[in-house]
């Protein structure tokens, strides 16, 4: 815990500041995509840091928990966990298929009107900088062994009611994984782990 700072008060102030900012920015919509990307960037980094810590925390807690059990208890516990995991996965998949068949979410006409779109390889320096920071905090350490994240831009046609005139396009940004080891993410993880162990 940081000395001299009451973390509860600090978190409350951050939540209030975020809520007030959201209320003030809502009437200004639609905001440009670059502004939205800059505003959402700290939250994206926080979520990536949390996802990065999930796997090591779960594995370490499982190892310490199983180390305190005898072989008979851990075998029974592992069987129950596997049955629970498999049954919830089957239920979730069946529920998803049933809901898609019954509700038919989305409008299939929009997909045929928009088409696949085309990739635009021109990425701004701001995107490259944010990709560098995203790669500092990988979501999955195993995936960081062979993939890293990058921003890709796609030119998507805007559906209009006009029959004449040139088609209008909008640039849509998305994140995609590319081949290559994320050495930066691994270095950050081991550096943070080393600082905690000292």
Cα end-to-end separation: 16 Å
* Largest beta-sheet characterization: 3 strands, antiparallel
Number of domains: 2
Strand order of the largest sheet: 1-2-3
Q: Low-confidence spans: pLDDT under 50, at least 5 residues? A: none
Structural category is alpha+beta
Tell me, briefly, the overall form. extended
Helices and strands, in order, run as HHHHEHEEH
Q: Could you give the count of β-strands?
A: 3
Strand portion, in percent? 5-15%
Query: What would you report as the Rg, rounded to the nearest angstrom?
Result: 23 Å
Question: Average pLDDT value?
Answer: 77
| Structure annotation, total helices | 6
What fraction, in percent, of the residue positions are helical? 55-70%
Topology:
Layout: H1 7-25, H2 33-67, H3 71-103, H4 108-114, E1 118-120, H5 125-136, E2 147-157, E3 169-179, H6 183-197
Antiparallel strand pairs: 1-2, 2-3
Q: Could you characterize the architecture of this molecule?
A:
By secondary structure, the protein is an alpha+beta fold. The chain folds into two domains: 37-68 and 108-198, no CATH class; 70-105. The protein contains six helices and three strands; from the N terminus they run ααααβαββα. The model has no long low-confidence stretch (mean pLDDT 77). Belongs to the dicarboxylate/amino acid:cation symporter (DAACS) (TC 2.A.23) family. Pfam families: SDF (PF00375). Keywords: Glycoprotein, Membrane, Symport, Transmembrane, Transmembrane helix, Transport.
């Amino acid at each position: 815990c940081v000395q001299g700072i009451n973390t509860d008060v600090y978190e409350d102030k951050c939540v209030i500041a975020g809520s007030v900012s959201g209320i003030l920015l809502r009437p200004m919509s639609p905001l440009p995509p670059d502004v939205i990307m800059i505003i959402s960037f700290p939250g994206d980094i926080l979520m990536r840091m949390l996802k990065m810590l999930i796997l090591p925390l779960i594995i370490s807690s499982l190892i310490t928990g199983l180390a305190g059990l005898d072989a008979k208890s851990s075998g029974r516990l592992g069987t129950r966990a596997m049955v629970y995991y498999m049954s919830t996965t089957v239920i979730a998949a069946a529920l998803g298929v049933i809901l898609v068949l019954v509700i038919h979410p989305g409008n299939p006409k929009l997909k045929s009107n928009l088409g696949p779109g085309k990739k635009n390889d021109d990425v701004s320096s701001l995107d490259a900088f944010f990709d560098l920071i995203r790669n500092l905090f990988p979501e999955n350490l195993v995936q960081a062994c062979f993939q890293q994240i990058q921003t890709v831009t796609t030119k998507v046609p805007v559906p209009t009611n006009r029959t004449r005139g040139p088609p209008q396009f909008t640039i849509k940004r998305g994140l995609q994984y590319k081949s290559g080891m994320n050495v930066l993410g691994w270095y950050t993880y081991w550096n943070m782990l080393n600082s905690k162990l000292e």
